[in-house]
Design brief:
Elements: E1 2-4, E2 7-9, E3 15-16, H1 19-41, H2 44-61, E4 66-67, H3 70-95, H4 99-104, H5 112-130, H6 134-144, H7 150-157, H8 161-184
Antiparallel strand pairs: 1-2, 3-4
């Protein structure tokens, strides 16, 4: 080993990676790898797909190659795949689809009217929740928002699971009635 400043450089450890080694390496660095890919492609789904493709490429490489720096190989492979992804995307945009064709594609975003209706319904929901009894509101919010089980809610509120079920059913019925009243108007 050779000291350089405060760092110590060591000789690379040349080894053949087993599937278990690759799996462990991937699991250990998956989140960091996905974030690194995301910074290049700016798409979460594409970053996740490319991270998986990186894993597949390394598994296929398998024991046929000697690897000195497995982590560096992982990140270099991912970076190369991300760059290929961007090149492919630019080529496809240049090679066929016109801007007009892309603009004519339906949007997944809700219309202005739908967004306004959703906002109004959400306000009705909030008003309905505010008019519930404190215990009923707490049970409902613990179950629906915080995803607590009936058992956890019963323990927290010092009541039976059956009582929790009744409180949540009461809250749901109250919300449904509020929506029906609004829709009738």
């Amino acid at each position: 080993m050779m000291p350089v400043g405060i760092f110590v450089l060591s000789r690379p450890c040349i080894m053949n990676l087993t599937c278990e080694d690759i799996e462990h390496l991937f699991i250990e660095h998956r989140h960091e790898l996905t974030r690194s890919i995301y910074r290049i492609v700016r798409c979460e789904q594409a970053a996740a797909d490319l991270a998986q493709e990186t894993f597949v490429r390394l598994v296929n490489l398998g024991q046929s190659a000697s690897v000195s720096y497995p982590r560096a190989l992982l990140f270099r492979t991912a970076t190369n795949l991300a760059i290929d992804y961007l090149r492919k995307g630019k080529y496809e945009r240049q090679g066929g689809e016109t801007l007009d064709a892309v603009l004519e594609m339906p949007s997944g975003a809700p219309s202005v009217e739908r967004a306004l209706l959703d906002k109004q319904r959400f306000q009705i929901f909030l008003q309905a929740i505010d008019t519930l009894s404190p215990r009923c509101r707490e049970a409902f919010l613990l179950h629906r928002v915080h995803e607590c089980s009936y058992r956890d809610i019963a323990s927290r509120l010092s009541i039976s699971e059956s009582a929790v079920e009744k409180l949540i059913m009461r809250a749901l019925l109250h919300c449904r009635t509020a929506f029906q009243r609004h829709d009738a108007e």
